[in-house]
Amino acid sequence: MTRFVLTTIRAGSMLDTTLAPSFRLVAERPSDASRVEALIGRAFGPGRYAKAAERVREARRPSPELSLVAWSEGAAVGCVRQWPVTIGATPAILLGPFAVDEAWRGMGLGAELIRAACDLAAAAGHAATLLVGDESYFGPLGFAAGPARRVVMLGPVDQGRVLVRALRSCGADRLEGPVLPASSA
Ligand SMILES: CC(C)(COP(=O)(O)OP(=O)(O)OC[C@H]1O[C@@H](n2cnc3c(N)ncnc32)[C@H](O)[C@@H]1OP(=O)(O)O)[C@@H](O)C(=O)NCCC(=O)NCCS
After folding, report:
1. Is 138 exposed, middle or buried (0-12, 13-18, 19+ CB in 10 A)?
2. Where are the domains of the chain?
3. How far, in Å, from the CA of 64 to the mean position of ligand 1?
């Protein structure tokens, strides 16, 4: 069952149905930054700069080939950014911010963005993705707190919300240590 069917009623017509999916996932370009930032700002508000994950991201750029924007009719309606990091000595990916425009929520777009982002990271050879979020949402998408229990975020964080997904067999084994920006980032 597709969850992206839109029904629109336009002026002058009795009933006009437009079948979706009517969004495209595209790698984030530098020129998208202001629209993506606006979407993230609407979703999180100014409090997002206080998050522990921001300590890894501040003054850096997300990996352009691993960060995605969902576009619909010229509007950025969803986004996910990814950052190369190290966890102790192990290279990994930090995922976030991740946001869907309010009008598009509850249709599966968020899950689609996470799946596509993890597929891209896996195809690029990364072993594991880390994020800070709710296990009730991210658990069904393959993330779990258990393998992240010895992962140390820079800044206060609820350790139960630090989640990891292996991108290949054993990719999330023995993750231990501080999360730092990868030196090449
Ligand atoms: C989280 C977010 C990206 C999900 O986008 P989405 O496109 O609505 O996601 P999906 O359609 O895949 O899933 C929607 C379901 O997830 C649930 N859900 C959303 N956020 C959740 C959360 N934090 N914890 C648990 N469940 C959540 C919704 O209630 C909905 O449940 P339903 O299908 O039973 O109605 C979106 O709600 C958002 O942008 N929120 C504000 C920013 C945010 O919290 N980002 C994530 C931080 S890690």
Report:
1. buried
2. 23-181
3. 24
